[in-house]
Automatic annotation (TrEMBL):
This is N-acetylmuramoyl-L-alanine amidase. One of its GO terms (cellular component) is outer membrane. Signal peptide: none annotated. It comes from the Bacteria. It catalyses: Hydrolyzes the link between N-acetylmuramoyl residues and L-amino acid residues in certain cell-wall glycopeptides. It comes from Litorivita pollutaquae. Its EC number is 3.5.1.28.
C-alpha cells in the first residue's frame, strides 16, 4: 500500500534535510515540494521509517508493507496544484508497478488515528478518487446513527480501533471517527459532533465496495 503524509515543516528543504538525517530516525520513499519537484530518498523495494506505530487491516508493521510519500505542507494550507499533479503522476506509476488497488492508498491518520492527522482535512482525496488513485464514498440512503454498525464497517474497510492513553480527551471511537471525517467528510472534522447517519452511510458504502480482505499481498 501507499501512505500519504504532510511534513508539518516550513519548507521542503528543511523536510529533506530531516528525512535524510540518520539521527532523526525517520525517512520516506518520496518527498514532493509545492512546485512539483520530487525527491526519491529510499528505493521502493526497501523499507522506510515513515509510518510508525499503527495498523491498517491486519497489517501491523506498515513500514514493511508500504511506500511512504511526504508532501511538503505545514498542515494548515492548501496543497499546491503542481504538487498534486506530481503526486498523481507518481501514484499512478507506483500503483502500476506494484499492482496496488485504489483502496490501498491511505493517509497516515488512517493507520494511526491516535497519533497523526496527516495529510489532513485540506488534502483533496476526492480529486484522487476521480482519477482512480484512491476511493470515495457514494452512500445510498441514510441509515440511523449506530456506533456498533459504524465500527463494524470501519473494521471491514481497514480501520483499527486505536489504543489510547490517558493523555487523550477523546476515546478510541472518537479518534477513529475524526480520522474518518478528516478524509471523507472534512467539513465535519474536528468539531466533536456525535456520530451521524451521514457518517454511518459513508462508512457502510466504503466497507461494502472496498473491504480490506480483497487486497491480497500487494505492497
Amino acid at each position: 500500500m501507499v501512505v500519504l503524509h504532510y511534513t508539518a515543516m516550513q519548507s521542503a528543504e528543511a523536510a529533506l534535510t530531516r528525512l535524510c538525517d540518520p539521527v532523526c530516525e525517520v525517512s520516506a520513499h518520496y518527498l514532493i515540494c509545492p512546485k512539483g519537484r520530487i525527491w526519491r530518498m529510499v528505493p521502493e523495494q526497501m523499507r522506510a521509517w515513515h509510518a510508525g506505530a499503527g495498523a491498517w487491516g491486519d497489517v501491523t508493521d506498515v513500514n514493511s508493507r508500504s511506500i511512504g510519500i511526504e508532501l511538503a505542507n505545514t498542515g494548515d494550507q492548501p496543497f499546491a496544484a503542481p504538487q498534486m499533479a506530481a503526486l498523481e503522476a507518481l501514484l499512478g506509476a507506483i500503483m502500476a508497478r506494484w499492482t496496488i488497488a485504489p483502496h490501498r492508498i491511505i493517509g497516515h491518520s488512517d493507520m494511526a488515528p491516535a497519533r497523526k492527522f496527516d495529510p489532513g482535512a485540506r488534502f483533496d482525496w476526492r480529486r484522487l478518487a476521480r482519477q482512480g488513485l484512491s476511493v470515495w464514498p457514494d452512500p445510498q440512503g441514510a441509515p440511523k446513527a449506530d456506533w456498533d454498525a459504524f465500527l463494524r464497517d470501519a473494521a471491514r474497510f481497514g480501520y483499527v480501533l486505536p489504543v489510547v492513553s490517558g493523555d487523550h480527551d477523546a476515546g478510541p471511537e472518537g479518534l477513529l471517527l475524526d480520522a474518518f471525517r478528516q478524509r471523507f467528510r472534512p467539513w465535519a472534522a474536528g468539531q466533536g459532533a456525535p456520530i451521524s447517519p451521514a457518517d454511518c452511510a459513508a462508512m457502510h458504502d466504503l466497507a461494502t465496495r472496498f473491504p480490506i480482505d480483497q487486497s491480497g499481498p500487494s505492497a
